[in-house]
Write a structure and sequence with these properties.
Elements (H helix, E strand, L loop, with lengths): L2 H8 L15 H14 L7 E5 L14 E4 L5 H11 L4 E7 H7 L1 H10 L4 E6 L37 H8 L3 E6 L3 H13 L4 E6 L9 H7 E3 L9 H8 L5 E8 L5 H12 L4 H10 L1
Parallel strand pairs: 1-2, 1-3, 3-4, 4-6, 5-6, 7-8
Antiparallel strand pairs: 5-8
Length: about 280
């Protein structure tokens, strides 16, 4: 990176230094976020990063922008409220697998179906790292023996597939990245931020302390096939459930009215009782 580019990158770095464990996958996502903001030439004063509780919850403190460190599981309501209050802001929601799929799981569906113009980056380490290693909604039973010394609690529940869930809920942009491939994390965050509507970027981000899965993901992560049609939600759902593989790339993308535009439409039409026009606009979206 040239000195000029490095100087540009520093504009987005917060004054608080990250305290994640050395080797944590979240470092890659943080670096990719700096780079994405720089390449998109975003104004830090017009960006907001919201987070919940967990290792990923510290994210806003590490970025030079406005930030909101909320309560456990409430990152998506917070991010939506910010966007509704000021649609001109670029809003990034950052949360973990426990924050977003356990206590906050009920908010996922509604943020997706509303098509709020926010980018939701889920840092999935498949464990509760901050509270010392309990299994999360995405912990894989098949990895209990693989990393037995790091996962002592056992698993009694089936894992959740975040990508399949986002697709089923109606998210208009769905992608997956792996923190070991920083360039792709950067590319997908940029695409997510540039997309108008609810963007979900699922990032496999290993926890080196309680669930070090780098070796495993090097073996099972593969690019989304070139033949895949990202305009087909059904094909994307099928791809997301391929046994033994974690595809990386864009699963699905659809352009249509976001939540702000739909609200404006309702405001404009409701006063005249034009219900048919409102209904037709939703059907077309």
């Amino acid at each position: 990176m040239s000195p000029v580019a490095m100087q540009e990158l520093k504009k987005y770095q917060g004054v608080v230094k990250p305290v994640w464990c050395p080797g944590c996958g979240d470092f890659s996502v943080l670096t990719a976020t700096y780079q994405a903001m720089a390449e998109l030439k975003l104004d830090p004063a017009k960006c907001v990063i919201a987070s919940g509780i967990g290792c990923s919850g510290r994210f806003p403190a590490y970025v030079n922008s406005y930030g909101f460190h909320g309560v456990h599981g409430r990152v998506l309501p917070t991010a939506q409220g910010i966007k509704i209050a000021n649609p001109d802001l670029t809003v990034l929601a950052v949360g973990g697998d426990g924050d977003g799929l356990a206590i906050g799981g009920g908010h996922f569906a509604h943020a997706a179906r509303r098509n709020a113009d926010i980018t939701y980056v889920m840092l999935d380490n498949q464990i509760y790292g901050l509270t010392k290693g309990q299994p999360s909604p995405t912990t894989m039973p098949s990895l209990v023996e693989y990393k037995k010394s790091h996962q002592p609690y056992g698993i009694i529940e089936d894992r959740i597939n975040p990508v399949a869930m986002a697709l089923a809920y109606g998210a208009s942009f769905v992608a997956r990245a792996y923190s070991g491939k920083v360039a792709q994390v950067l590319d997908l965050i940029k695409q997510g931020v540039s997309h108008k509507g609810f963007s979900f970027v699922h990032v496999l981000s290993p926890c080196v302390t309680f669930y070090p899965t780098y070796d495993f993901f090097r073996q099972v992560t593969v690019p989304v096939p070139e033949t895949h049609d990202p305009t087909s939600r059904l094909d994307a759902i099928t791809l997301s459930q391929t046994p033994g593989k974690f595809f990386l790339g864009v699963f699905y993308q659809h352009d249509g009215p976001d939540m702000t535009e739909r609200m404006q439409l309702v405001k404009a039409k409701a006063g005249r009782g034009d219900i048919d026009a409102i209904a037709q606009a939703y059907v077309q979206s």
